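Figure 2 data, in text form.
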Amino acid sequence: EYKKWHVGIIGAGASGLVNLKTLMEKGFTGECWEMQTGLGGVYLSTYQQAQLTTSNLSVTFSDYSHGDESIPRMYMANEYRDYLKGYSDHYGLTPFLHFQKKVQKVEKSAEGEKYNLIVECLQSGETTTYTYDKIIVCTGANTTASIPCWPGQENFKGQIVHSSVYDSPEDFRGKRVCLIGVGESGSDIAGLVSKVTLLHTALGWTNYRYGASARSRGEYCRRSFPSKSSSEVEILLSPSFSSCLTTFLGLQMRGDATGDAVMSKTSRMNGSQNTHGFAIFGTKNDSFVKAIVYNGLELKPSLDRIDGQDLHFEDGSVFENCDAIILNTGYRMSFPFLEEICPDFCACPDVRSLWKHSFHADLGTDVMFSGFARPAFGALPPCSEMQARYISMLLTGERVLPPKDVQLKLTELEAEQEMWQYDGAAKRVKGLVDFLLYMDGMAEVIGCYLNFWRMLHLLVTNPRVWHAVNFSPIGGVQYRLYGPDAKNQYAKQALSASLCSRFPDRYVLMAWSWFFWIFGKMGVYFCTRSGSGLEYRKAAVFADAKKRYGWTPLSGIEA
């Protein structure tokens, strides 16, 4: 028996939906408040022909499928919205979703034990107050466009548009266009715009990022028979060697010949970066590479200044008579509705200061965050689902948050590891995480982690599923095999239908993972900020917390 909390959820994207569904499964009540006109979050207001950058094998939730696990592909934005609608309908969430409602403010109730949400109806302009026991913030990181400035920008007579308001390449047909930034959206937009602009157009890119292999399923390489593949160990190897190896494996798994023009270009560009896919926030999209190879797109360094209609780059080159600049420069987080509750956090929001990117040390389970763990390679919705599972267990008492000083120490250790692994990218993208390390870390506190003995049991009892866990892309479904809220039969069925890497790739990957695992344990002594080093340091914090407070990661009514 536990108190049936009434929970207010801000945001009805993928994170809001999965939190609502998980809470309702535990017997709680809740509602989602969403500014937009329907389901989909960021994918509802995106540009035409927007496409996800992680396959359906990784982006979907662990207990709902369209039945297409055997056909890996990247959903178009409208297809993913259809998936979310199907998820909402399947679990009966639709009556509890409120659209075109903007949360203006979160405040303590008069009694001091509950929270008031002051909600504005965007259609009528009226405001209404709703009271909840708990609040979950699922607004996502893409809330406020990040707009850079350059010297001379005020004198530029052409268009300057941010990707958040970009709609169609037809708006730029025949123009000379410069795109700034080549993340996921920037790569897509480059591929689209380059087809309709003048063929001799040059495009400038700043802070461009490359992954191990454009749109390859690099997450294949992250799991192995020794309970946990030491993905962090690759960071200790030569970046040049790692880049070549991961690119080669990406080519093999994608099925393209090494002579393919786009993949060959990608490989050369990756090699020139002197890094690799597990230590960089890579662009998981090869559209801009295709634009370079086929449409005459020209890559430039950072933009230095603007002189009339001429753009001057840091290498001294000039792009003359520019008609339009498209800013693919991302977003910054903002939580204006929380300024009364946590003013210091809102003044300089950094979700890396939250344990698991979810829990504020001073707010506990009163106000929580979900959807702010953004994998460098991998998908955000499964991370949100793991957060939702843990949040629901906290509210039932099945789990207990660590004492405040322990929580702060764990937050510091995890933030240090993320900053070390992703270096400059982590400073720019506050929510950046390693997909496998984050998912496994959440699994450890939930109790569904696939440790050595569970993997061995799986190998003996169901080799086909064991192969799928090792050699198919990482998603949330493998964390439904064991532990609390397991859905064993569904997980086995979904994993059995999932596409695995081809022979002999799977055995090359197994040997690779074993190599990393063995040398990773040795690498702990040389780099305590690596993933393995983090595990040892966390274990010491857990031991101290158990000694001083009797707390362990699995503390709760189950324990």
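Caption note: Residues 198-241, 249-259 have pLDDT under 50 and may be disordered.
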